[in-house]
Amino acid sequence: MAGVAPPGTGTGSGIYRGNGPRLMLPVWAFIGIFLVLPVLLMAVYSFLTKEFRGGVIWDPTLAAYDKFFLDRGLFGDEPPVIEWTYIGIFWRSIWQAGLATLFCLVIGFPTAWFIATRDVRTRSAWLFLVTIPYWVNLLIRTVSMKFLIRDTGPLNEFLLWTGVVDGPLGLVNTNLAVQIGLFYSYLPFMVLPIYAAVERYDFALSEAAADLYAGAWTTLRLVILPVVRPGIVAGCILVFVPSLGAFLAPDLLGGAKTFMIGSLIEEQFKGAAGNWPFGAAASMILLSIVLGVLLLYARSQAKGAR
Amino acid sequence: MAVATDLRRFAGFRAMTVLCLVVLYAPLIIVAIYSFNASSSITRWGGFSFKWYVDVFTGPEAPKFRQAAINSFAIATGAALLSTAFATAAAVAMSRAGRFRGKVASLALINLPLMVPEIVTAVASLVFFITIGFTTGLMTIFIAHIVFCIPFAYLPISARMQGVSDIYEQAAMDLYATPWQAFRLILLPLMAPGILSGFLLAFIISLDDFLITNFVKGAGVETLPTAIFGSVKQGIKPNIMAISTLLLCVSVVFVTLSWIIGRAGQSRK
Amino acid sequence: MAQVDSSGGIGIAVDVDDVVKRYGTLTALHGVSFDIRDGEFFTLLGPSGCGKTTLLRCIAGFEEVSGGAIRLHGEDIARLPPHRRQVNTVFQQYALFPHMDVLANVMFGLLRRGWTRRDATARAREVLALVRLADFAERRPAQLSGGQQQRVALARALAPGPQVLLLDEPLSALDLKLRQAVRVELKQIQRETDIAFVFVTHDQEEALTMSDRIAVMSDGRVQQIGTPREVYEAPVNRFVAGFIGETNLLDVAIRSVDGSRAEVLLPGGRPFACAAAAPVAAGPGHLSVRPERIELVAAGEGDLTATVRDHVYLGTDIQLHARLADDEAVVVRIQNAAGSAIPERGAEIGLKLEAGAARLLTD
Predict the structure, then answer these.
(1) Domain region containing C102
(2) Which residues of chain B neighbour A16 with C-beta distances below 8 Å?
(3) C281 shares a domain with C149
(4) Does B61 fall in a domain?
(5) Are the CB atoms for B213 and B157 separated by under 8 Å?
(6) Which residue of chain A has the CA closest to C99?
(7) Which chain A residues are closer than 8 Å to C98 by Cβ?
(8) Per-residue pLDDT at A142
(9) Helix B62-96 vs helix B188-208: angle between axes, to the nearest 10 degrees?
C-alpha cells in the first residue's frame, strides 16, 4: 500500500484548466491538415473526372464509382450489368483478412492464455518473446517469410530432403502464401490484447464453474471466453483492419491472381496507367468498410460496458 | 491422493504457444543464419562468413544504403521527437485540462491515423502534397511520419498519465510551486517513463514504415525500407539479409530498452 | 511571513465568511461561516458528502468559491491560486512526491518560497526531527511505512511555517492501533508549533479527542460549532445528536415551556422536565438521551417501561437493546461492574432518565 498513487480527484489542480485547446493545437493542426484534409480531398477526387497520366479534371462525375460497380461493355454503350472484377478483389481481401483473423485467433488465444497463466517472472519473459517480432520491421518480416517459403527456399529444400514432397511446393504467388504472410504479419496484434484481458481474468470464476460441475472445456466456452471477449474482439479488429488494406504481403508473396485492395489502390496512383478518381473511389469504399467495422466494434464495447 | 486439477491448464495450449513462437521466429532466424552464408547462391550453405556484412558497408550498393539509413534514422529521430512532444501536450490536455470544446473529437483525431487504412493514408497524402504544390522529398516524409507516430507516442504517455494522480501537482501548488514549476518538477519526472516509451515506440514505428514513405518520398529519396523493397523486387540478395539482420538487432535493442524502462517506471510507481 | 493583523480581528487565523460552492446546479456549500482562532485545533466533522473536504479545498485554493470570502489573518485569499496562499495541506493519501527522497519532499515548499538550499536543508532537518524522522531523510517515500509517510507529509506541510495547516483525513489510511497513537502525537505537535490546524474527519471519536472546537457539518451547512463537550452534551438538533456518539431519540409531546426548560410527555404517558436546545412551542418533539445516561430500575418504576430484546457484550459495558410499549427502540449501556444484574431477554424493565442529561430537540 505504501507508495500507491492515490486516485485523482479528477478535477485537476486547475493548472491546465482552460488550456486544453492550446495544448491540443499541435495535434489538431498536424492530424487535421495532413490527414483529415487529404482524406477529404480524396473523397472529393473520387467524384471528379480522370486526367490521363495521373491527376484529375475538376468536372464532377460518378464515373469512378460507376466503373467500380457496373460494367457497360467495352465502349460503354451496353446496358449496365454488375462489374464483378473489383467487387471480387474486395471480396477476396475481406475473405483473406477474415481467414487471417481466424487463424491468428486459433493460435493467438492459446498463446495469450498460456503466457498469462505463467507465474509473474516467466510471464514477462514469454511476453517479451512475443513482443519482439511486433517491433521488427514488417517489410523485413515479409521478405524473410518469402525467403523461407519460396520454391528454392529452406522450407522447400528441407521438405525435399526429408522426402515429404518430391517437387517444388509452388507456394509463392498463391492465395495461401498471401494468407501465410497476413497471418504472420499480424499475429502479435492478436496475442497482446487477449493477453491483457486474460491477465485481468479472475480465476475464482473458473473455480466457481468447476465447483458447479463444469469441465475445463465447458468452463472455457461458458465462462472464460465470454469474460475475456473484449480482448478477443480487440485482437480481431487489430488483425482484420490492417489485413484488409495490406500491401506488402500480397505484393511480395502473391501474384496477379491474389490481387488485393491495397495493390488495386496503389496501381491507380503509380505509373501511367493510373486513374486517380477510381483509386480515390476504391479508397473511400475501403475506408467505409473499415469505419463500419470500427463503429460496430465501438457499439459492442459500449454495450459490454453497460 | 487425487491431485487437484489446475484450472489454468488446457491441453495443447503449450504446444500452440510453441507453434506460435516458431512461426514468429523461424523466418527471422533463418534469414539471420543465411546472412552469414559464404556462398553467393543464397540457398546453398557455403560456410560461415561475414562477407555480406562487409558488402553492406563497402559494396557497390553501400552508398545507396548508407544514405537510406541516414535518412531513415534522421526522420525517425525528428518525427519521434516532435510526435512525442505533441502527444505529451495532448495527454496533459486530455487528463488535466478538465472539459473543453472538442475534447471527445480530439481523442478520435489522435487515433485517426490508426483507423484509416495505411494505403488510404499513403495515397491521400501523396495526392494532397501534389495538390497543394509541395515538392515530395524528405520534408513530406517527415510530416507524414509525425502524423502517424502521434497515436503511438500518445498510447504509453496517456497510460502513464492516468496512473499519475493530479494530487502530486496539487501538493506542489500547495507548497508554493508555480504552475510551470509543478509541471517541470513534478508531472514531467513522474511521466518520464511513459514519455520515453512513447518516444521509442514512435521511433521504431517511423523506422518501420514502408507504405506511406513509398508514396510521399518523391523520386530519388530513399529510406531503408523503400531501398530494401526496391532491391527485393529484383530478387532477395544476401546483402539484403545482412541488412535485415542488422535492423532486427536494432529492433531487439529498442524493445529491450523500452522493456527495462517500463519495468523501472513500474517499480518506482 | 509576519502575521499582519488589521481588519481580521485579533487572534483570528481564518475567517470563513458566507462561503458558497456550486457545481453546476448542485450546491455543495450553502453559505458557510465561522472563525478559526490562532493556535486552535479546529475540526470539520461530518459524514462523507457533507462538504467538509470541499470547504478545506476552498481554503487551500484547489476549488474556486462561488461566493463569499475566506480571510487569512484579515486578507481575502478566496481568489488567489494555491501557491499564493500561506496555508499548507496534509493530504489524505499524503501525496509525497515519489521521485524525491524525504528531505527533498520537505524542502520543496521552502525552495519555492525562495529559501537558499542551505537554509532549507537545515530547516527541513529541524522539522524532520520534530516528527522524529531525522534518520529517514535520504529514504524514498515508497520505503517508508504508512505511519512514517504520514509524518513526512506533516513535516513537509509544516516546514514553510504556514499560517494555517489543513489536514484532510490524514489518519484514515492508518490502521486502528497506529491511528490512536498518532492522534496523541499530532495534538502534541500542534501545541508545540502553535499553528492553527483545520482538521477534516468523519470519525467522531477522532474529533472529540483532539479538537479544541468542532464544526459539525451536513448537507453543505454547519449544524453546530462548539467544544467537544458542547456538541456531545448539548447537541442542537437530531443530526448532531445522532452523528456524535450514540443516542436515543424518543418521540415526545411538549406540554409546557418555561424559557429554556420544558415539560414533555414521554412515551407511556409520564411527564418529564428537560432542557430545550432551542426555543420551543407546545407540540411534538424529540428527546435525546445518551444510553449511558439511563439508569436501570425495577419494572414499573422510573420514567419508561420496556422489554429487553437483546444484549451486546462490549467488555467494559453491556449494551441492552429494549423496546417500549409502542415498539420504539431504546438502547441502554450499563457498566460491566461486579454485581451488576443483567436482565434476561424478554424481561420487563423500568428506565430512569438522568434529568440533566436529556435534551429536547425539535429539528
Answers:
(1) 12-233
(2) 92-93, 96-98, 179
(3) no
(4) yes
(5) no
(6) A3
(7) 3, 5
(8) 92
(9) 140
The 3-class SS string of chain C reads CCCCCCCCCCCEEEEEEEEEEEECCEEEEEEEEEEEECCCEEEEECCCCCCHHHHHHHHHCCCCCCEEEEEECCEECCCCCHHHCCEEEECCCCCCCCCCCHHHHHHHHHHHCCCCHHHHHHHHHHHHHHCCCHHHCCCCHHHCCHHHHHHHHHHHHHCCCCCEEEEECCCCCCCHHHHHHHHHHHHHHHHHHCCEEEEEECCHHHHHHHCCEEEEEECCEEEEEECHHHHHHCCCCHHHHHHCCCCEEEEEEEEEEECCEEEEECCCCCEEEEEECCCCCCEEEEEEECHHHEEEECCCCCCEEEEEEEEEECCCEEEEEEEECCCCEEEEEEECCCCCCCCCCCCEEEEEECHHHCEEECC
Domains and CATH numbers, chain A: 84-305 (1.10.3720.10)
Q: Give the range of the structural domain holding residue B107, as residue numbers without chain letter.
A: 55-267
Pairing of strands C304-313, C317-324: antiparallel
Instruction: Pick from A290-304, B33-47, C87-101 the range whose average pLDDT is largest.
Output: C87-101
Inter-chain CB proximity C95 and B167 less than 8 Å: yes
Kindly give, in sequence order, each residue whose CB lies less than 8 Å from that of residue C44, ignoring residues fewer than 6 positions away. C52, C55, C56, C198, C199, C200, C201, C215, C217
Q: Which residues contact C145 (CB under 8 A, 6 or more apart)?
A: A2
Any chains having at least 3 CB pairs less than 8 A from chain B are: A, C
- Which residues make Cβ contacts (< 8 Å) with residue C190, sequence separation at least 6? C41, C197
Exposed/middle/buried for C99, CB within 10 Å: 0-12, 13-18, 19+? middle
Q: Backbone dihedral region of B48: left (phi > 0), alpha (psi from -120 to 50 degrees) or beta?
A: beta
Query: Residue B15: which pLDDT band, with cuts at 50, 70 and 90?
Result: very high
Assess if residue C335 is contained within a domain. Answer: yes
* CA separation for the pair A73, A71 (Å, rounded): 6
Note the pLDDT of residue A16: 80
State the DSSP H helix or E strand holding residue A11, giving kind and residue range, or none if neither: none
Q: Give the number of beta-carbon pairs within 8 Å between A and B.
A: 308
Which residues on C lie below 8 Å from A13 (Cβ)? 62, 82
Number of separate domains in chain B: 1
Nearest-angstrom CA–CA distance, C276 and C285:
10
Looking at residue B37, what DSSP letter applies? B
Contacts of C312 (CB under 8 A, 6+ apart): C318, C319, C321
Average pLDDT over residues B254-260: 81
Q: Does A1 touch chain C if contact means CB atoms closer than 8 Å?
A: yes
Q: Is the pLDDT of residue B110 over 90?
A: yes
Concatenated DSSP letters of A220-282: IIIIIHHHHHHHHHHHHHHHHHHHHT--HHHHHH--GGG--HHHHHHHHHSSTT--HHHHHHH
Residue B139: which CATH number?
Answer: 1.10.3720.10
